[in-house]
Amino acid sequence: MSEPLLDKVSVCVITGPTRGLGRSIAQQFANKLPKGSLFILLSRNQILLDSISELILLKDGIRTVTGIFDQGSCDQNLYDNILEECLKNAEADVTEFQQAILINNSGTLEPLDFVRNLDDVCTISNFFNTNLAGCVALTSKFMQLFNSPSIKSKIIVNISSLSAVQPMKSWALYCMAKSARDMMIKVISEEEENIRTLNYAPGPLVTDMTNIACQNTKDMELRNWFEEQVRKKSLVECDSSALKLVSILQKNTFENGAHIDYYDEI
């Protein structure tokens, strides 16, 4: 029988934990992880970081530390130091934990335009800095730092999307970034024998991103689909999707590097 993945004292790094799915994941993981666990919460907005940190601290024995982190930054010092600085600020040491978890949640959606119109190289570069380059760099630093013998297991979850495996008109950059991040996880699963890796597609969620999709998607068929889901109230609540992720990790029967959707049976 597979061992549940959220039963160990863990250090849990979450990018983008202040809104939407990231916030729900932080709260649901705090409900599951045992006393002594530490959440490292990374985002650009300190006020929102403080808000989610206060909620997590309501859980008995759970610690938090926040770090200002712009995943689109090309400042190497940020990536070299952010995780170690957070541990130092929390007065914590790697050896305190049995497990290290990384939730790669941060990302952006726009521009939502047809490829024939994507001719601004700076816009394209900035998009991939945030959605891909920064994600890869932070993942690498996570693997380097949490390499102590005391860490018995490591888990890397990439928040993926249906768009990683299905083309969506006028969403080319988003599809490309999600597909590339999925492949990063698959490669890690081949390179690292001691890391559990998962691409989790959370379903069409009730978030600010959905509002952006409804307003700015250039392909009218896709835009109309989002608008219809909003009208029908058929979108997935973030807490429900976060609970599905918890269930997947606790069951722990997925193939390393797998792409699992919210609607998949587990």
TrEMBL record:
<dbReference type="InterPro" id="IPR002347">
    <property type="entry name" value="SDR_fam"/>
</dbReference>
<dbReference type="InterPro" id="IPR051721">
    <property type="entry name" value="Biopterin_syn/organic_redct"/>
</dbReference>
<dbReference type="GO" id="GO:0004757">
    <property type="term" value="F:sepiapterin reductase (NADP+) activity"/>
</dbReference>
<protein>
    <recommendedName>
        <fullName>Sepiapterin reductase</fullName>
        <ecNumber>1.1.1.153</ecNumber>
    </recommendedName>
</protein>
<keyword id="KW-0521">NADP</keyword>
<comment type="similarity">
    <text>Belongs to the sepiapterin reductase family.</text>
</comment>
<keyword id="KW-0560">Oxidoreductase</keyword>
<keyword id="KW-0963">Cytoplasm</keyword>
<dbReference type="Pfam" id="PF00106">
    <property type="entry name" value="adh_short"/>
</dbReference>
<dbReference type="GO" id="GO:0005737">
    <property type="term" value="C:cytoplasm"/>
</dbReference>
<dbReference type="InterPro" id="IPR036291">
    <property type="entry name" value="NAD(P)-bd_dom_sf"/>
</dbReference>
<dbReference type="InterPro" id="IPR006393">
    <property type="entry name" value="Sepiapterin_red"/>
</dbReference>
<dbReference type="GO" id="GO:0006729">
    <property type="term" value="P:tetrahydrobiopterin biosynthetic process"/>
</dbReference>
